[in-house]
Every structure is written in structure tokens, then in C-alpha cells.
Amino acid sequence: MRLIFKVLLGLSVVIVGVFGYMFWAMTAENPSPVTAINPQSSGPKALVVSDPGISGFESGVADAFARGLASHGWHVDVTTASAQTPTDLTGYSLLVLSSPIYGGEPSKPLQSYMARLGSLGGVRTATVLTGAGAPPEANAWMTSKIQSMGGDEVLSLVVFSMAPNPEQYGSTDPQGIAAGAAASLTP
């Protein structure tokens, strides 16, 4: 009986530890410097702010979107959502907000960044959300938030890591869809 109790206690500690780590990973900011893609471009400037999430999926999709913009003449600055992320959008023609979906909403680091922004002042804004099989309320949450901040939402994209992606922009691959969506945005 003592052995069973010790095994159950050990399993409980492991389970609590795993869930604690997952919660921390989903809410932790991952600061990164602003990196320019296609800096020699004399075209419009875009700022891509993403939260890498707990897997590499979100990072790959956000990178594909940024590279899709750059391949169509945009100067693209890329960074992660954190307290160090620029909030002065002067000089940017486009703000891209990219995040995994947790609990039906964008990640807490992206939400915190949006709160620090305050007003978007009419800045054109694109959203890129990722999830295993994302619920529609996350997309609605972003649209509502951007509107309340005075932004002009020009694109709203949701791609899935586990559920099949419907063909969009000539692809069913999440990164292909992201790059195609970016290419559809004209300066």
C-alpha cells in the first residue's frame, strides 16, 4: 500500500510540474532584438511582432509571413512580443501581430504588448494566429481588440498545426499560406 501511495505521489508531482512548466512557457515573454529583413528596400516598412509560443510552429509561420512581405518589396522589422518591443509605430505602414492561440485567445505576451501600444491610430494591421485547431473566438477577439484600439485590420489569418488547412493563397501548407497572405498585402 505504501508503494502505491509513493508512486501516486510521484506521478502527481510530475504532472503538476509539467502543467506548471506549460503555463510558464505559454505566459513567458521571450525578448528578442529587432531584426531587419530586406533593409535595403525603399518600399514601405512593416513591423512583425510575434510570440514564438511553446513550439516552433508559430515561429515558422511568422517568419514565412515576414519573408513573404520582404519578397514583395517591404522593409520588414521582426521581433517578439515583450516589454522591449517598440511601441512607437511612426514610420511603419503595417503592423503584423502573430500569436499562438491558448484558451481561445492570443498569447498573454502578445496581449500585454497590445496593451502597451494603447492606440493604433489607424495603422494598417494584419493578424496571424496559429493553433492545433483554433476556435473562431480568438480571431474575433483580435478583430474586436484592433478595432477598439483604432487600428485598420487589413488581414486576419488563422492556420492550423494539426487540423487540415483549407487551401488559401494557393497552398494548404501553413507556411505557404502565410507567405501567400503576406504577398497579397500591397503597400
Structure write-up:
By secondary structure, this protein is an alpha/beta fold. It has a single domain (31-183), classed as Flavodoxin domain (Rossmann fold), CATH 3.40.50.360. The protein is 39% helix and 23% strand. The chain has five helices and seven strands. It has helices at 2-27, 57-70, 108-117, 136-148, 174-183, and strands at residues 35-37, 45-50, 75-80, 94-102, 105-106, 124-131, 152-160. Strands 1, 2, 3, 4, 5, 6 and 7 form a seven-stranded mixed sheet that branches. Helix 4 links the parallel strand 6 (124-131) and strand 7 (152-160). Helix 2 (57-70) packs parallel to helix 5. The longest helix is centred in the first third of the chain and has 26 residues, at 2-27. The N and C termini lie far apart (70 Å). The relative contact order is 0.16. The mean pLDDT is 87.
CATH architecture call:
3-Layer(aba) Sandwich
Proportion of residues in β-strands: 15-25%
Count of strand segments? 7
Number of helices: 5
Largest sheet: 7 strands, mixed
Number of structural domains: 1
Structural class: alpha/beta
Oligomer state of the chains in this structure: single chain
Provide the CATH top-level class.
Alpha Beta
Task: Set down the secondary structure blueprint.
Elements lengths: L1 H26 L7 E3 L7 E6 L6 H14 L4 E6 L13 E9 L2 E2 L1 H10 L6 E8 L4 H13 L3 E9 L13 H10 L4
Parallel strand pairs: 2-3, 2-4, 4-6, 6-7
Antiparallel strand pairs: 1-3, 4-5
Helix pairs in contact: 2-5
